[in-house]
Amino acid sequence: MYREFVTPVDLDVFERLDAWPETMDDGSRLLAFSYPSGEHLTFAYSPLGRSIRLRWTNSTGATVLDLFRESATELIIRADPEKKCLVIRFDMGECSGELRVQTHPTVTVTDRMLLA
């Protein structure tokens, strides 16, 4: 069964994360974050492809995490004055889960995928 990948409009993303999503040629969106520590985080999402890509590099440019996943169903942005977080939900038939990416004040990633 096909499920739509529900994502917020670009203005909502900007208002909650202080980052404007760049639109790529294929219609996917790219968010880029840089930190005083020298770390970089990029998050790309494709509403049509129902996929996400997360890349996190440290201050030397070495890859800390490079994650690609399909079957995304929802992108939620949670933001308050103390922290900002992307929550991506997935449904792969037998498995479902949630990826949480904190973008402010520091980067943290929590991934949970369970049998449905």
How would you sum up this structure in a few lines?
This protein is 7% helix and 55% strand.
Break the fold down into its secondary structure elements and pairings.
Blueprint: H1 10-17, E1 22-23, E2 29-34, E3 40-46, E4 51-57, E5 63-70, E6 72-79, E7 84-91, E8 95-104, E9 108-115
Antiparallel strand pairs: 1-2, 2-3, 3-4, 4-5, 6-7, 7-8, 8-9
SSE sequence, one letter per element: HEEEEEEEEE
Estimated share of beta-strand residues: over 45%
Widest sheet: strand ordering:
1-2-3-4-5
Distance between the termini: 15 Å
Describe the fold and architecture.
7% of the residues lie in helices and 55% in strands. A 5-stranded antiparallel beta sheet has the order 1-2-3-4-5, with no helix packed on it. Strands 6-7-8-9 form a 4-stranded antiparallel beta sheet, covered by helices on one side. It has one helix spanning 10-17; strands spanning 22-23, 29-34, 40-46, 51-57, 63-70, 72-79, 84-91, 95-104, 108-115. The mean pLDDT is 96. It is mainly beta. It is built from 1 helix and 9 strands. It has one domain.
List keywords for this structure.
116 residues; mainly beta; 5-stranded antiparallel sheet; 4-stranded antiparallel sheet; 1 helix; 7% helix; 55% strand; S9 family peptidase
